[in-house]
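job 3f2a | input accepted
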Amino acid sequence: MVMSTPESAQVVTDWLDQNQAQFIEMADQIWRKPELAWREFEASRLQADYLEDQGFSITWNIAGIHTAFVAEWGEGKPVLGFIGEYDALPGLSQKNQPTKEALEKGAPGHGCGHNLLGTGAVASAVAVQKWMQASGAAGALRYYGCPAEEKGGGKVFMARAGAFDDLDAALNYHPGSMNMPGKGSSVGVNAIYYRFYGRAAHAGGSPHEGRSALDAVELMNVGVNYLREHVKDDVRMHYIITEGGKAPNIVPEEAEVYYYLRAAKMDYLAEVIERVRKVAEGAAMMTETTVEITVEDGYSPVLSNHTLADLQYRAMELIGPITFTQGEIDYAQAVNDAFPRTNADYIEDAIEHYKLPPEMAAKLDEYRDMPLIGGNFPALDAQVVSTGSTDVGDLSQLVPVSMLGTTCFTTGVPGHSWGNVATCGMSIGHKGMMHAAKIMALTAAELLSDPNLLVAIRQEFDRSTAGKPYVPPITEEIQPPGYATGGDTAQG
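job 3f2a | predicted structure (492 res):
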């Protein structure tokens, strides 16, 4: 049993059911006005104002970030954190419909479901507050409004500033295609600009007098592509050329390439970064140019707490599955039909990815012909290292955390796509959000009810981090950008 008594569990879930309309509207307001990293002014204010109305004290400008805040209620120990995000992705504007059509061409959209992510954590924190008031349970609750997960790493700066240091455990979730707590890991990442400087010349009349910065960029990319053969399997190296010159008849005097370099271990990531640096310097030498290297940001790998994940699954078993209507299933199928991967492909890929035993594979196979997975599953990813990255990794190096996932997306849609935006602004996403809020709230209430659970969670965390103190993946010289409220002008 998850809660101390079934009646206590009922108090939490009943409150969330009775109040879900206000959280659905909050999520939809953020969905309707998506804001990019560091500029989530309306989303952060909307959540902070609501929490303040509920009696939480608000502290803004965490780590010097205008859209980062902490809302706190209660006092003493334990201290539980609820982790929220609210930034959108560029270029993913989408109407609230199952076929691709932008609301505003080129505008951002919530292709990762952060409108649901932050709001679900808000709902969970307040539900636990109401339960604590009714039960007399002691402790403190904090909601962390964390900006810039998609680009920039708000949690990294917050971690470096000590914002999470005294938490006993943290609860968070991420929209996904399955209801499942997380035991897996993800890779760390550094985002790095390589800017080359050459000498301009007339590309037709006197090319011999020029030194092409674009040639250096292209040679660097060729070198990195050969390097791919000689790194570990978990490494990812991907890039875009952000500047390639001004006109074809001018030898480019400046050119720039922007890389994400990823690896499962930070020490090996440092080796990869060093090898890529040598490739860049070699490209500069070959072209008689110079290179300037600027690290923009970095995230640490995720360290999942298995004890916390198991507790979340016990909460999921008590709550039961998500039930989707036929209308929601039809909507999801229409979204899936716009993508090449079938429902069955997703199930087969998941069975292979998680290397499931026959009995668990059979349970998942029940959804072979469904575009939505409503059932609850235990953590299947204990041996999986995701090759994506998140700044939750930096949180997890300081505080016990398990990345919970709930069904807000369809089975056939890739991450960061319009199809995810389409389900995050309607009832499919709403149901996944409220499911997550219940799971996190029941888990938090049990942690507050049974101190032995927090002891076990902390013991696992201490074993996992023994001899490996957290080192921020960014230097002190790297600071978050500052934007004027509601504008796009950086102030720092």
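job 3f2a | Residues 6-185+301-465 form a domain with the Aminopeptidase fold (CATH 3.40.630.10).
job 3f2a | closed
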